[in-house]
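Protein record
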Amino acid sequence: MTSFQLPLVYNASSKKLSKHVITDLELPVSCKAILHPTTSFGMRTAPLWTSHYTSNIDFLKDTQKLLSRGLPMICDNNSHDISGINTTWDCVKLHSKTGGKETDDDLGFHAKYHYVEWEWLYSLNNNANFLQCMSIYNMASPVLSLCLPIFFLILPYFIIRMKGMPITLMNYYDVLRVVFQRHQIGQLFTVSSATWDKRIYILVSLVFYVLQIYQNVRTCVTFCKNMHHIHEQLFTVRKHICASIDYMEVFETCTNDLKSYDKFIANMKIHQLALSKMRNELTLITANSFSHSKLKQIGHVMKCFYQLYNNNDVKTAMEYSFDFCGYIDNLRGLQHSITEGLLGKCKFSKKGTKFYNAFYPVTENAPIKNTYDINKHHVITGPNAAGKTTLLKATMFNIIMSQQIGFGCYDKATLYPFQQIHCYINIPDTSGRDSLFQAEARRCKDILTSINNSSKDTRHFCIFDELYSGTNPYEAIGSAAAYLAYLNKLPNVSFMLTTHFLGLCHRMKREKRIINCHMQVEEHDETFKYTYKLAKGISNVKGGVKVLKDLEYPDEIVEETNNVMSKIIL
C-alpha cells in the first residue's frame, strides 16, 4: 500500500474532513472538475484531495507560489511509458493478491519464471550467482540431452585409458557395446534379439528419453520467452523510475524556498533514494540478445525481476512514485484551471470572508456566480431547484479548496481560515434505528459537541440544508430557532442555512448577526425563471404550488391548496 500523502497532511494544522462532508459535497466529483487528471496516476491521486484541509496560512501562501511555477509535464511518451508501467504493475498486484501461488488460470510466479518454489529456500531467489547457474542449466538442458549419444561415443576412450588397455578399434567396440547396453539408446540396437518383455522395456525407455528431450526443449523455449517478457517489464520500470526521479528533482527545485514543504521533501527523498538504488541496478541490464556478455548478466536480471514482484521495499517505492506522478499531474491540472479562469486566488485576512463571483464547479449548465460574504450568518429561502443547496455546496467547497491550495472557484476571495468544518446535507432517512428527525438531531448534536469540546479560538463553519425538516413545522421552527440562537451567541462559529419555514426566517430578523437572503426567481404568467442569484430578504415564491400545476393536478386541488395556505400561520 502506498505511503504517499499530500504535502498539507505533513502540516501540523491539517485537519481531516469527515466522511459525511466528503459525501454530502460530492467532493470526489467536484475535485476532479478542477484537477483535470490527464493520466491514470492523476486519477488515482484525485481522491486524496478530498481528505484534508489546513488553516496554516504560511503553507497556503507557499502553495500559491508553487502553482505559479513551472512543473514537469506527466505524459505518455518515449521517456515515460505510462500505459506500459500500468500493465506491468497490474501483473505485480495480481501476484501480490495470489501470493505468487498457482491459480486455475495460470501457473504460480515461481514455477512460471523458474524460481525456487520452496519457501524455506526463497532467499536463493535473491542471489544473482545462484540464479545465473539455474538459468544456464535451463537453457543448456536440451543441448545436454541431445549431446548424450555423443558423450557415449567418447566415453569408451576414457574407460580404456583408465584401465590401462591399449586403444584399439576392437577394445573401443567392446567397451562401447557395454556402455550402450546399459542405456535405452544402446538397447535399441539389440531389440531384435531381445525377449518381448525386454523389447517393451527398451521401447518405453526410448519414449521417456524422447519425452525428456521434448520437456527440456520446451523448458528452454519457455525460459527464452520469459526472458524477453522480463526485459520488457524491467525496461518499462526503468523508464518510469528515471522519469519519476527527474520529476522529484524538478519539484525539489521548485520548493527550495517553501519552508512549509520541508517535511514532504524529506519524506520524498527517502523514496527517491530507494528508486535511485533500483535505477542503478536496472541500468546494468543491457538489451536482450544471444551473446556472451548478455549470458553473464542473466542472474542479475532474474534477481531484479524477482525483487520487483516480491520485495516490499521496492513495491512501496514504486507505489509512492505512481502517486507522486499523480500529484504532479494534479498540480498541472490546477495550473490549467487557474489559466482558464476556473480558479481564482485567495487572500487571507482576519477581517472576514468574502467571495467574488463564486460558483460550484459541478452543474449541468454553465455555473451562475454570486458575490457575498459570510461575516454574518445567512438564512436562505427560495423554492425547490432555485439553487439554495448548490450555494451551500459552493461556499463549503470553496472554503475547503482555499484551505488546501489558496485558490477556489471564484474570481477572487478574502478568507479568514476555519479550523473546523461541519456539514448538514442529505441526512439519511434512517440511521440504524433512528427516524429522519432523530438522525437530523443526532447530526446537530455531534456538531454542538465538536464546538463545545474545542477552544474558544477554534473557528467553526457550518452549513445546514433545511434544518429539522423531518418533523412537523411547529417543532421544526421551534427547534431550529433555539439551535440557531445558541450558535449565534458563539463568536467563533459561522453558519449558513436553507429553509422553507418562513416563520423561522421572521424569528431570525431580531438577531443582528443573522441576515435573511433568498434565491431570486422571476415570475412571468405563472411560470418561474430561476436566476440562481443570491439577494437579501425572504422569498415569498410558492414553489410547491407551481410543482402541482406543472404536474397538471386538478384545478380544484390547486385552488384549495392556495386557500388553505392563506389561513395557515407558522
In short: DSSP finds 21 helices and 13 strands in the chain. Residues 344-539 form a domain with the Rossmann fold fold (CATH 3.40.50.300). The chain has a mean pLDDT of 86. The CA atoms of residues 23 and 426 lie 9 Å apart.
